[in-house]
Design a protein that fits this description.
Strand order of the largest sheet: 1-2
Radius of gyration: 18 Å
Order of helices and strands: HEHEHHH
Helix content: 40-55%
Mean pLDDT: 86
Number of strands: 2
Largest sheet: 2 strands, parallel
Strand content: 5-15%
Number of domains: 2
Structural class: mainly alpha
Shape: elongated
Amino acid sequence: MDRLKAQYIDLPIYLAMDNARYQNNKFVKAYAEMLGIKLIFLPPYSPNLNLIERLWKFVKKKALYSTYYKEFPEFTNAIDQCINDTKDKYNDEIHSLLTLNFQTFENTEIKP
């Protein structure tokens, strides 16, 4: 938050945050308020709004579902390889999966 505030000193800052305890707590809220940053928390379970959740679901589907890895390094290598393949092998799938086209609601009030 310090870096955001320093970089955008004269602009209003709205920061979308996950609802994890380490993000949604009194300390974080107080610190954001002190810096003049408005926090907006995603609904408690909203994987469609969080791009990393979409990517993780994709990786699990491609590298982990119905696959047994006898050794832990095989398991981690499968995950690493899948992530590395997102640029080439899975580029089209990733491009359509990680779009920023979200449903919007006109005239909606965001309550802190």
